[in-house]
Amino acid sequence: MQIAYWIVAGILALAYLAAGGLKVVRPPRKLAESGLTWAPDFPTWTVKTIGLLEVLGAIGLILAPLTGIATVLAPLAALGLALVQIGAIITHIARGEVKTLVVNVVLLLLAVAAAWLGFATWA
């Protein structure tokens, strides 16, 4: 189970560090140019907060089990990332952006799998 967790968590952490990091450092206008068409329609603080949550979730997936300190935080981080994806799915459906739903659903399923594997391994 641990190996499966590390594979899923590693994929998620890379995806969320990249996506969240971009949201934190780039202005919404630049994000829209790179494909995140929703970003300019939200306040900058909202976009930055989403990015920060994604980065913190990615760190939580890896850091807690890596250090062995408060390992229950890893599956909780995965649940938090699942909630972020549920919000993303709702937003994209409301905006009629169905192309991005496949990525969102895959990330949601990976986050749920990481939570389940994390709870089974460390909680």
List the helices and strands and how they pair.
Layout: H1 2-25, H2 28-33, H3 44-67, H4 73-95, H5 101-122
Helix pairs in contact: 1-3, 1-5, 3-4, 4-5
Largest sheet: number of strands, sense, barrel closure: none
Report, as a whole number of angstroms, the end-to-end distance. Answer: 13 Å
Instruction: Bin the helical content.
Output: over 70%
Q: What is the averaged pLDDT score?
A: 96
Strand content: under 5%
Treating each run of at least 4 consecutive H or I residues as one helix, how many helices? 5
Give the total of domains: 1
- Please give the oligomerization state of what you see: single chain
Structural class category: mainly alpha
State the shape.
Answer: globular
Radius of gyration: 15 Å
The count of β-strands is: 0
List SSEs in N-to-C order.
Answer: HHHHH
Model regions low in confidence, pLDDT < 50 over at least 5 residues? none
Fill in the keyword field for this structure.
single chain; mainly alpha; globular; 80% helix; 123 residues
Commentary on this structure:
The protein has 123 residues and is an all-alpha fold. It has one domain (1-120). Helices cover 80% and strands 0% of the residues. The chain has helices spanning 2-25, 28-33, 44-67, 73-95, 101-122. InterPro entries: DoxX (IPR032808). Pfam families: DoxX_2. This is DoxX family protein.
